[in-house]
Amino acid sequence: MVAERKEILQGTKKEGTRVRNRNVFQDPVREQTLIRKMQEEQDREARDALICGYLWLVRSIAGRYDFPCGREELVSVGILGLIKAVDSYDSGMKNRLGTYAVRCIMNEICSYIRRQHYQCVLSLETVPGGEDAPGDRRMEYIGMTYP
Fold it and tell me: Which CATH class is domain 2-118?
C-alpha cells in the first residue's frame, strides 16, 4: 500500500489500476506541496495527482445517493465536481482541499439530480392521484430516494 501511495503521489501509477487506500494525503505537507506546484507553476502532473488522490471521495459521496441512473453516472458527475474543486481551490483557505472538495462534489451531484428531476416532472401527471399525491409517492414513482 505504501508503494501504491508513492506511485500515485509521484504520478507513476499506471492507469486502470485500483487504489485501495483512502487516506492518500495523510501528510498535509505533501498535499500542500502539490497544491502550490499546481497553482504557482501550473504543473499538470500535480493537478492529476490531486485528482487521483481524491477519487475515493467521489465514490464515497456518490454511494450515498440512490438514483435510477446508477452509481456510475453519479460518480462521473462527481468527478466533474472534484475537478472544479481542484481548479478553484485557494490555498489561502483555512480548510484542506478534501473538505472543500466534499461540498463541490455534493453540489455537482445535487445539481445533476435536480436537472434530471425537472426532466421527469412531466411524468408526474401520470401518477395515480396526480399533483395531489403525497411527495413520497411521487418520488417513488419516478424512482428517486434520498439518503
Answer: mainly alpha
